[in-house]
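Z., the sequence and structure:
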Amino acid sequence: MREARAEDARTEARRLVTSLLGTERPQAGALLREAEAALGAGRVEHCVELARGAPLTRRSTELSAVAALLVGTRDLGEEWWRRPRGDKLPAPDEALAAATAIDPWTDLTVLEMLAAWIADDAADEVWGPPAASADLNSWQAEDRVGLPPDAEPGRRLVVAFDAGGRLDALVVRRPDGELGSNLDFASLRYSRPAEAQWSWGVAAGLGPHRLEEDPDPYAEPVDGDAARTLRAWALDNGASAGQAGEPWRTRGDVVAAVDRVDWMWRSGEWFAWWRAVSALVDGDADRLAARLEDIAEDSG
């Protein structure tokens, strides 16, 4: 069942990335060439610098954000980057140059922030500014959003729930005569930049995604003992020999194996394995030691 869901997600991601970016199997180099044509060489250079500076386990996420910026710039125009935003927000160009996330996106990286920004702007362009926002961690449908003064039964309100994510709330009259609203989960949709971000990440996978670096960070050796322990754990817990691959010697070996293993679609104990493997790839010795202890305790 888990494997079927994983394949369904990959199939949908390939469909979307083909529709939005014209390729079923996205590659970093092709993405950046397309982005340069839409965003301009200077902006893409900044994006590449930020992607190179991220941990290798986060590089796919950063490149997925570039995919969102590519599609969003094509849809909204290159002037989106220069458009003044009033007193609270700088123009996106200024935010990219400063290389610092700003409110309300301080929990994101700079590229993730810009991707969320353009995804929301693209959603507003298509469906109009949202009347309210809702947290979909709760699936309660009734009266989740406040109503505007001119609300009337039958009216649909656009509700934001995520970067580029929208759904409708239907205004209804309750039995007591008061107006209320019901979220229409069937109306859930995402803007094209948000779809590009998700689909590129799923279709391209964790990597390796090389960005013309010398030395190649994926060629750096990893801790041999930890690599053997984590590879053996994967084999003992359901990964095939083909998925685990040859013994892991470099960061690139580990990244490629993680991509093949599809740990996110496996049972819960694989999350501890992922935390250890990500520490191995990122070269975080203290975090790696702690995560290996966690795995040993769980196995014992």
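The radius of gyration is 22 Å. The longest strand covers residues 179-190.

Let me know what you think.
H.
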